[in-house]
Amino acid sequence: MTDALRTDFAPLLDVRRAAVVGASDRGLGYTLIENLTAHGGEVVGVHPTRETAGGAPCVASIADLPWRPDVVAIGLGARTIVPALEEAIAAGHRAFVIPGLGAEAAGEEGDQARERVRELLVAADAVCVGINCMGFAVPERPSGWIGTVCPGFRPGAVAAIVGSGSIGEAVLALGPRVGFRSVVSIGAETSRDASDWLAFHAADEGTRAIGLFLEAVRRPAAFRAALERAAEAEKPVVVMKVGRSEVAARNAMAHTGAIVGSDRAFDALCRSYGAIRVDDYGDWLEQLEVLGASRRPQGTRTVLLTNSGGEAELVADLADAAGMPLTPLPESLARDIDATFPFHGVHNPIDYWAFAEPEVIVPDLTMRCATHPEVDNVIINIDQSWRFLNGERDNAVDACRAMADAALASDAFCAVLSTAVSDPADDCVLEAARGGVPVLIGAGLGMRAIARAAQWAPRRPESPPAVAPLDAPELDRDAGHLAEADAKAVLVRYGLRAPREIRAAGPDEARAAAAEIAATVVVKADGPAHKEKHGGVILGCTDPDRAAAAAERIGGPVLVCEEIRGGAEVLCGLVRDPQFGPVVVVGVGGSWAEAVGDTARAALAPIGPGDAERLVRDVGPLAHRLSDDEIRVVADALVAIGRAAHDHPRISEVDVNPLVVKDGEGVALDALIVLSERS
């Protein structure tokens, strides 16, 4: 595949006629016929000996089809699929779903069939869902899907692109909880991949939110371009990626590489375009449910209604942990509620239990809160389990009805939340859906999803200022690491500051260097960074004689540096990821860099000053310790490092650890640059 994006999927979302090659009365061929004839679809089977299959008429070959289908579904095995595909392509067909050729087609025969199918599809530039997939499903439309399209699978604005067939099955089994534009199981991504589908839905008017469940990114440049299209269209993308690998981290020479790894680089890509990264299916699903609603949170001023004091405290804690703490009720709203119901000092969250009958108080409170100009979001926490009977079931349905009414009458974002994690009853979900109100399960999952949605904004990487590349003669050498002094010389040229330091061939020159610096010095072996692990660093040389003695102890050439104590230690670095290109990273520096690497943050490079400053602020320990001016000092260092790597593609790693930030300035005490092989 090239890096070009192909977005020719529209016919699959509106299939009217389909051909099923390998039609049968059972198995895969039967299921395809069943799902493609649903909702008025017209299907003709292709089978050499049968007149009908699965209730559909059959013809002997693709050439005998009575009309041109919107899609050709091929349900054949490794021995017969290649000639069938050749015949279909020769007849001019260019849209396929091929569920097979997965694990069931093992061995040499299967390998050969997969390779030949790929060659044919790519050569014809054909649209193909698969191979080795579940297919595609569109609510209330014919679907090329080989599993169960469950009752309740309803239309909506969420597009789900999944690399796992079982995840696709789980999504279709949700019933009416989430309204979907489509669900596609991309399988082996033979001639179209997740990047193409992402770009398609970025431009699709019927899509509001896009969910990706990925096992791999096959074309990083195309994926980046598709994320950019989604950001331009202001459509949030929720990404769950499995198969994380830290092989790159284990092989890295620098602290930065050990912290970043391949998955952190992917995370940097997502962050650069505002894609929401989650780690669990539940978070993924709840986030899509919130973002796919007809209205999203426009702020963080939230009122919580509940019928349980304990659950009120629980959800309040979870809201605080999610970064969207509950705020006091507006005074005018509190006065109105107290004048109507005997709370005698109502507060947020509002526990309404026993103050009036639920069918009276819940509609009143939801409408008052949703229509108040100082309220952005109204959430009611009430269990809606499908297992409830009688009054409990009625209370849940009534609450969902009240929230839908409030949503339709106001500009507020309204949501129904449940502490329980059992599936909500369909009548609750459908009642809420009337007003575009999501019904969320699991208070923690739901609050996180609402908070992320309230804080989400489309983002694209800031373009750094255009400047001419700088020469760096120190980089004109073979692959490997530069000596510390040479690495610092390159970085100083790009704007970083280093301590006063002088190279010395032996003790006598070290004595002279210390005298010239005229301050307490550090004596280091004149080699790469991180020499303290091997006894190559001696601190606290307070006079020239001690510096000479330190040089003699180390042996060989040394670097005599002004010693700088105090200040905050910051790690600034860069790794050139083989998939996603240069990635800058910032975190806690010094000997603790790798130990607290989970607090580090990464972004694509080169990076602009605004993005760099936001990145530093996102590292909690640094944001709490550094002043605004000091944060900008660190951001400037990241911009400089990214620019150096952009100008000189052979730079594969950069490590400044620590960058000591003190008195409004940053000084690179230690630096490492690693070069790749010459091209």
Give a brief rundown of this model:
This protein has 679 residues and is α/β, with parallel strands linked by helices. It contains 21 helices and 29 strands.
Question: How is this structure best described in words?
Answer:
37% of the residues lie in helices and 21% in strands. By secondary structure, the chain is α/β, with parallel strands linked by helices. A 7-stranded mixed beta sheet has the order 3-4-2-1-5-6-7, sandwiched between helices. Strands 19, 24, 25, 26, 27, 28 and 29 form a 7-stranded antiparallel beta sheet that branches. It has a 6-stranded mixed beta sheet with strand order 8-10-9-11-12-13, sandwiched between helices. Strand 1, helix 1 and strand 2 form a beta-alpha-beta unit. Helix 19 crosses helix 21 (628-647). The longest helix is centred in the middle third of the chain and has 20 residues, at 390-409. The chain starts with 16 loop residues before the first strand and ends with a strand.
Key phrases:
679 residues, alpha/beta, Rossmann fold, Dna Ligase, domain 1, D-amino Acid Aminotransferase, Chain A, domain 1, 7-stranded mixed sheet, 21 helices, flat
Helices and strands in order:
Blueprint: E1 17-21, H1 27-37, E2 42-46, E3 52-53, E4 56-59, E5 71-74, H2 81-90, E6 95-98, H3 107-124, E7 127-130, E8 135-137, E9 155-162, H4 165-172, E10 180-185, H5 194-203, E11 209-214, H6 220-232, E12 237-241, H7 247-251, H8 255-272, E13 276-278, H9 281-291, E14 302-306, H10 309-321, H11 331-340, E15 350-351, H12 358-370, E16 377-381, H13 390-409, E17 413-418, H14 426-433, E18 439-441, H15 443-455, E19 480-481, H16 484-493, E20 501-504, H17 507-517, E21 521-525, E22 537-541, H18 544-554, E23 558-562, E24 568-577, E25 581-588, E26 601-604, H19 609-617, H20 620-625, H21 628-647, E27 651-662, E28 665-668, E29 671-675
